[in-house]
Amino acid sequence: MLSLLALDEAPHPRHPFLTVGTTATVTLVQALSDAGVTAPLWCATRGAVSVGPADDPPCPERALLWGVGRVAALEQPTLWGGLVDLPASLDDVGTDRLLAVLGGGTGQDQVAIRDGGVFARRLGHAGRDQASVPWRPHGTVLITGGTGFLGAHLARWAADAGAEHLVLVNRRGPDAPDARELADDLSGRGARVTVAACDVADRSALADLLDRVRADGGPLRAVLHAAGTVEYRSLADTTPADLAEAVRTKVAGARNLDDLLAADDLDAFVLFSSIAGTWGSGEQAAYSAGNTYLDALAEDRRRRGLPAASVAWGSWGRGGMLAADVAAQLDRSGVHAMDPDLAVTALARAVTDDSPTVTVAAMDWSRFHPTFTLHRPSPLLSDLPEVRALLDTAGDDEPEREAVPLAESLADLPSDEQAKALLDLVRGQVAAVLGHASAAEVEPDRAFREVGFDSLTAVELRNRLKTVTGLPLPVSLVFDFPTPTKLAGHLRAELCPAMDDTAGDVDDDDLRRVLRSIPPVRLREAGLVDVLRRLAEGGPANGAEPEQTRSIDEMDLDDLVRIASRPN
User: Fold this and answer.
1) Which end of the chain is less crowded, N or C, counting CB atoms within 10 A of the terminal residue's CB?
2) Which of 258, 251, 248, 275 has the alpha carbon at shortest distance from 330?
3) What Rg do the C-alpha atoms of the chain give, in angstroms?
4) In 470-506, where does DSSP find H-type helix?
5) Is 564 strand, coil or helix?
6) 290: Cβ–Cβ under 8 A, 6 or more apart, which residues?
7) What is the pLDDT of residues 513-531, one digit of tens each?
8) Which residues make Cβ contacts (< 8 Å) with residue 428, sequence separation at least 6?
9) Are residues 88 and 46 in contact, defined by beta-carbon separation less than 8 angstroms?
10) Most distant CA pair in the chain: distance in Å?
11) pLDDT tens digits for 420-436?
């Protein structure tokens, strides 16, 4: 399926920060998901991304949908096909390229079609230009979200770096929590401090504030837009009102700052984005959308000859903006908390980087990549050397030495004790992953999803079992074998195939379900209708004499396939 809804760029009548096309696309994804549709859905945009300096700059409003799409890929992996950005006009060659993308021939899911070919999105390491001089704040610096966690760190760093006047903007002014204490601290560092109440999404209010700043203390030299909130809501439950409210401060605030400061002689215009916009994050469709807007705005400003840097942050340490459980989950997935002092050092370099969009995060790719691609393959990270190395070793993944002694020890056990030993092994590892006191707390026939397994714990259990068994287990292990009993059975089949007494067993109900799922016309084309009818009636399948045949009740699946394959 190809959706062109996003091409409708008219402002939403009730939510002008959004386009009609963006909200309609969200509704479409929800409707298809509710209907159980699994045919891949591709969403087309035009001018939402740029493929290089020769291409037009991206339109921030159009880029919003790409943030939504990155989350849809994570939350709806079987429904989502991908994002494709179209050129201004599509000729026959471009149409052929589009059809190749939609047919899966390119293996990509975030692409732009241009006259020069099909361009796929990739993440790569930023260059290390030793000649680049880190940005050093001076003069008057305005920080939105200035008394929050991030804003406070930025303000202290700016004061220590030599900024003479700090304007800290929030919605409550000096009455915001810890605002007065922060102002006193900054004053002690030698900076003059103004804590101002202003909703930066309100253009008129922001214009008044900027006029006052310009009149009080010299020209404005830098803006750091760190305002924003994070709300967790699945895409399936996100309404247009939810989406609009979540992106309001980031999008409207950035748009207003861009418009109102276009004529100011700024050294830096820094937008605080997030990794949620870089590669998506579950239950953060609106947040991801807002951050892709910031990234596109930074590119657009650079093309206009204006300073801009959009920095997509990972997790910050020492408290950060995230709840403790969320930070712990990110850490387990390979997104580690950064020391704030190192983060602001990276910020100073990002401001002067050649690229207007930079991601700054402390990553363990060996943990993150398997989790990120657990439910859906993604080539986004495949150009990173660390990920290439992972993929190369995965291709050569042979059973490790631990598998041999484990298999040997199991071989000495009777069949029922083999099954019990492996079930105990699985339950013990599950208990360790979930933090249970003992394996007895793990019910052998209860689904992993029901006891709290998610993509992170699924990968952790897979890694533990891979180490213990030495088997090359897939990251989708707990979804392929959804209970401890079924998983233990799979391990036994791999470790002790000669003694696996379940191999070849076929459940009659499963067989009937398979046969019912085949359209009658296909059975007729294959010449199997008469064969199956004779089998069901207990007669010979291929015209043989009755004494040469057996009842269907005595046959297994191999027998049925062999008989059905004979000529009538």
Assistant:
1) C
2) 275
3) 29
4) 477-480, 484-495
5) helix
6) 64, 67, 228, 246, 247, 250, 251, 277
7) 556 656 565 556 556 666 6
8) 439
9) yes
10) 106
11) 989 999 998 998 888 88
SS3 track for 440-452: HHCCCCCCHHHHC
Q: Are 152 and 125 in contact (CB under 8 A)?
A: no
Tokens of 142: 């305005």
* One-letter amino acid for residue 266 of the chain: L
pLDDT in tens, 271-292: 999 999 999 998 999 999 999 9
Sign of the CA dihedral running 134, 136, 137, 139: negative
Residue 110 burial (CB < 10 Å; 0-12/13-18/19+)? buried
3-state SS assignment for residue 140: strand
Q: What is the mean pLDDT of residues 228-253?
A: 90
pTM of the model: 0.78
CB 281 within 8 Å of CB 287:
yes
For 495, 498, 533, 567, the CA distances from 472, given in Å and listed in that order, are 11, 19, 42, 41
Query: Rounded to the nearest 10 degrees, what angle do helices 365-372 and 455-469 cross at?
Result: 120
Give the domain ranges of the chain.
2-120, 140-363, 365-396, 403-499, 508-565
β-sheet bridge partners, residue 141: 166, 222
In terms of Cα–Cα distance, which of 249, 235, 232, 292 is closest to 85? Answer: 292
Side-chain-side CA neighbours of 38 within 13 Å: the count stands at 2
Highest mean pLDDT among 94-108, 237-251, 301-315, 493-507: 301-315
**Spatial contact of 465 and 473, defined as CB atoms under 8 Å apart:** yes
DSSP characters over 258-271: HHHTTTS--SEEEE
The CA distance from 363 to 126, in Å, is 14
The topology under which CATH files domain 403-499 is 1.10.1200
DSSP strand pairing (117-120 vs 110-114): antiparallel
Q: Does domain 140-363 have CATH number 3.40.190.10?
A: no
Pairing of strands 335-336, 362-363: antiparallel
Q: Which two tokens stand for residue 462?
A: 């897979």
CA distance to 40, 64, 235, 491, per residue, from 25 (Å): 14, 11, 11, 43
Domains 2-120 and 140-363 equal at CATH topology level:
yes
Confidence of residue 544 (pLDDT cuts 50, 70, 90): very low
Q: Write the CA distances from 490 to 442, 510, 514, integer angstroms.
A: 18, 18, 21
The residue type at 125: H
CATH class of 2-120: alpha beta
Helix (H, G, I), strand (E, B) or coil at 424: helix
Token pair recorded at residue 249: 């401060």
Identify whether the C-beta of residue 48 lies closer than 8 Å to the C-beta of residue 59.
yes
Which two tokens mark 171?
Answer: 């919605």
Name the residue with tokens 């996003």. 6
Structure tokens at 288: 């991801």
SS3 44: strand
Residue 545 pLDDT > 80: no
**Distance, CA of 342 to CA of 316 (rounded, Å):** 10
Contact of 6 with 22, CB cutoff 8 Å: yes
Q: Nearest to residue 33, comparing CAs of 279, 190, 237, 291?
A: 237
